[in-house]
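Blinded run. Sample ID left blank on purpose so nobody reads anything into the name before looking at the predicted structure. Input follows.
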Amino acid sequence: MATIEQEEQGRVRESTADRINERIDSSIRQSIARYKGRSHGEISERIRELDQEWSIERTLEVNASTLALSGTLLGAFVNKRWFILPGIVSTFLLQHGLQGWCPPLPVLRSLGIRSRREIDEERYALKALRGDFDDISPKSSPTEILDTVRNT
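Blinded prediction complete.
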């Protein structure tokens, strides 16, 4: 049974244009290919970088709360019309929570911002290359590695 987090991340991919999803998948495969045959240390460094990468969910949450707080402060101290900004932002967050889509999502996805699931797929594929798992051979192609990670 899928967790709520997995369902949300699946909805992000479903709400994203196929060409953007393919571009993100291609980027993951290229990264796997780039690190294939590299040292344990180099792969570990890339995994640490992935641990720091912001997901689409985190990016949406931080941007939305920044805009909502800014709108609230501007509404309180500059002009009451600014109070509409937190209302719009809250509506976008609600829409994202219920549907997995909101107006900023296509823009952020086209910038290459990935879901947590996509980041984790690259991380686990690199861990497999590093030899952390028995099921995957380091001689496997990047596509085979990514498919194995997605199917487990």
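Unblinding after everyone has recorded impressions. The two ends are 13 Å apart (CA to CA).
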